[in-house]
Write a structure and sequence with these properties.
The structure holds two protein chains of two kinds. Chain A is mainly β. Chain A is 0% helix and 50% strand. Chain A contains no helices and eleven strands. In chain A, strands 2, 4, 5, 9, 10 and 11 form a six-stranded mixed sheet that branches. In chain A, strands 1-3-8-7-6 form a five-stranded antiparallel sheet, with no helix packed on it. In chain A, a hairpin with a 6-residue loop joins strand 4 and strand 5. Chain A starts with a strand and ends with a strand. Chain B has no helices and eleven strands. By secondary structure, chain B is mainly beta. In chain B, a hairpin with a 2-residue loop joins strand 5 and strand 6. Chain B is globular, with a radius of gyration of 13 Å. Chain B is 0% helix and 57% strand. In chain B, the strands form two sheets. In chain B, strands 2, 4, 5, 6, 9, 10 and 11 form a seven-stranded mixed sheet that branches. Chain B has a four-stranded antiparallel sheet with strand order 1-3-8-7, with no helix packed on it. The chains are: A mainly beta, B mainly beta. At the A-B interface, strand 5 and strand 10 of A face strand 4 and strand 5 of B.
Chain lengths: 111, 113
Amino acid sequence: RKEVEQDPGPFNVPEGATVAFNCTYSNSASQSFFWYRQDCRKEPKLLMSVYSSGNEDGRFTAQLNRASQYISLLIRDSKLSDSATYLCVVNVDGSNYKLTFGKGTLLTVNP
Amino acid sequence: DVKVTQSSRYLVKRTGEKVFLECVQDMDHENMFWYRQDPGLGLRLIYFSYDVKMKEKGDIPEGYSVSREKKERFSLILESASTNQTSMYLCASSLTGWREKLFFGSGTQLSVL
């Protein structure tokens, strides 16, 4: 299993749709999980951290499944402005500093 | 808001040149990182530093070195640039602790001819 693996995408959805991304990680000792968003030709920015109990921020819900070693991101009521690449980030070796990024999933929300 | 500034947005160098990429952050962050981003490969960690004069290798340190003489500044050095080092280079910083978020600079697109 690759260290951090994401759905390959691309995802093309209409406005208002619900879309979900999954990300698997290889090391069961990983403790730190994030979703970042990267707009075209821009730097990545933190979208949300992922906590053990799951967490929600407006239209975005992140969940962690330790047993199956994956995290997910659910976007409800998609907006045109949600179009971006979504990056899964994990501290795969349990270190305090080294975060490993997935290759990203491209989402395009169409009018 | 935190600002991470990279010295150049675009840079063109020749094979064999010594290249310096500079990064400065203004929020007194302990940790600083250099990543490169390539199509199909995602972001890969080159080096990081968790304190002044301290550095640790990331996943792909070969061909690179770093310098952190001051807390706010983290430099990436390509000792002898090669064409396979053509890439987008992203600097990031964070407060100490692994739950602190990374703040990225806007990146330097380096082309080595």
